[in-house]
Amino acid sequence: MEFLFPEYRLDWFGAGPSSPNKTGALLAIVFIAAWWPALRFRWGYWLSLPVAFVAAGILLQTESRGAIMGAVSGLLVLVVGGFFTKTRVDRFPLCHSASEDTVKTLKERLKRNAFMLRALSLVVALCLLVFYSHQLGVNDRMTAMTSGEDGSTNVRFALYSAGLQMIADAPSGWGHGQAGNAYGQWYQEVGDSRSYLSLVNSHLTWMTDYGMLFQFVYIAGWVLVLLLCWPLGPMRYREDAIGMASLQEIEWSDVSIERSSERTGALSLRLIAFATWVVLGLCGVFSSVLTLVWLWVIPCSLLLLCLFQRVRSNDWPSVRQAQVACLAVILGFFGLQAVAHAFAWGNQIAVDHELIELGEMPKTVAIVQPDRQILGDKFGHTIREYLEDTGGMTVLRDDSAQVDLSQFETLVFSGSLPQMDLSEHTGSLVWLNPPANVEDATLEVLRERLLTIVVGSLGDWRRVRLWQSLADENLKWDLIELRGVADFIPNWPKYIKEGEDE
Fold first, then answer.
1. CB-based burial of residue 46 (10 Å sphere; 0-12 exposed, 13-18 middle, 19+ buried)?
2. What is the pTM of this model?
3. Neighbours of 146 (CB within 10 A)
């Protein structure tokens, strides 16, 4: 019974909190791919149904709502696509050139396929799956999505809206793997201590990380893949494959019975491939699952088969389809930018590879390569909390060695002093919890500067004694000793303000 009713959500990969969603995404893809024999062969339905039924049952054990929605969407693609492709195979010849013998043949074919038996078996399978999902509690989880009280859904809305703002605020991207951290620092509600590795959306996470050029290429890549797998439209046949003198485009209504088998194979392959890519894309919308390599195996294999089939039959998308695809890329890219800037309207944040500017006067204070052990893991919350008092701040990131420091009034260091040329900067300096061991060359650089030193009395006792003695020797240095504070300095921006006032 543990297999049928697991105590926890099914997880095959052990890859963190999103692992059940990754397992669910894989099962959703398998569920859709299982219907290939049913579309390709007359007897294939009886192979597809049990495989799809088992995949769907195991999928329910993951309780992954995104994967379930992806599987349902993929199945809808198969139903709609199958209807149109099947209509064009069977109905158009009947309407245009059918004879009584053809009608009789079609009726006999429907009888042989035992349509009612297939429909009955499908209804029974669906009823069993609905009953099983109710026993697992999946129905309640699906209903909670629209209640407005589901924490997982609310978090996703917050992450997705922030992700769109992040796209607008950082045109060149936040950097590899930085989307989750950037949200936690600069967009998360102040005081919320939860941390995220991503934006719980693979597409949004990657497009936030890598900037506008990647966004355009990424959108174009998905459109190209869907175009190559697109199952509808006219087909072209090679003359050596059908014994004709030249290549010609044949509409569905003119396809002969001899070519129907070849067409059915091509259509079923493209339809399954298209549906699996739809499932893959939708699963990536609802969770950060696309980093799992196994999810790409079936869709990419089907894509390669589609390419092989197109090369073999010289059957490529028409000019009109290519034009529509190009239009979709353009609309997708510019639509993304428009929506992102609409969400980011009024934000006082600007980002590039070297710095993050916040507030109306970001040149007032620059936080140089912040040390989280001293400023706190959520130092961005602290900066935003004091932003009204400071007027603005700039955070110099780890790759900010080439930034012109002369544009800032005050530089704030935490922990060890980074290797930077301070000769062009003439403003004041603030050093939060400097180390106990400092090179003489560093002290010589700072000797004639206006420097405010903020140290905690706890922790390394040598640090307090060293900087007390050094501050006593230099009249341009001020020491602020914090009683009861060790490495982490709470509310540290107020000591920057005190240093500026002094």
1. middle
2. 0.84
3. 9
